[in-house]
Amino acid sequence: xxxxxxxxxxxxxxxxxxxxxxxxxxxxxxxxxxxxxxxxxxxxxxxxxxxxxxxxxxxxxxxxxxxxxxxxxx
Length: 74
What we know:
Elements: H1 2-10, H2 31-43, H3 66-72
């Protein structure tokens, strides 16, 4: 960590980012986190996160007496 702090202090515009995990080799741990940090350092911005959303509509209709009738017909 001492060497990392030194490098971050001597590289213009650099900042030290510590990612959670036990591994210090990027491709064994959180590779996406490393790539995101490098991308932000090089380009100045992160790409937009993909959002996984689904729009769903539920329609319930109860016609007068239909529920009781459906129960009787069984």
